[in-house]
Amino acid sequence: MSNGFSGDPDDYFQETRMSFGTTFEDLRKHLWRAVYGFLAAMVLSLPLGKYVLDGITAPVKQQLDRYYDRRMAKVLHEKKDQWIASIRATPFRKMCSSRPAARRR
Q1: Backbone dihedral region of 4: left (phi > 0), alpha (psi from -120 to 50 degrees) or beta?
Q2: Dihedral angle at the C-alpha atoms of 58, 59, 60, 63, nearest 10 degrees?
Q3: Phi and psi dihedrals of 6, rounded to 5?
Q4: Residue 1 confidence (pLDDT)
Q5: Closest of 35, 40, 3, 38 to residue 19, by C-alpha
Q6: Running DSSP on this structure, what letter comes out for residue 104?
């Protein structure tokens, strides 16, 4: 295959050499193919994106819900214990004791 270059007979890449203009034409062709491929992939993937995102985030949301439920139960239990302790510590509670004999002494 002769491309107009005369050169070294031991040159292994002699048949694959291109001129400057041919190189840019080839690069331009490949660039447009890449742009068209990108646009086609984007058009096909946009409708599916929500479903893929839901599939990825579903386990994370599930574990966060479980964590927040356990945390809320723990906090409410602690607040209930604090509330009961505060009622037991009030003077009114001591006055209204159900042990009348303890008040008579």
Answers
A1: left
A2: 120
A3: -105, 135
A4: 46
A5: 3
A6: H
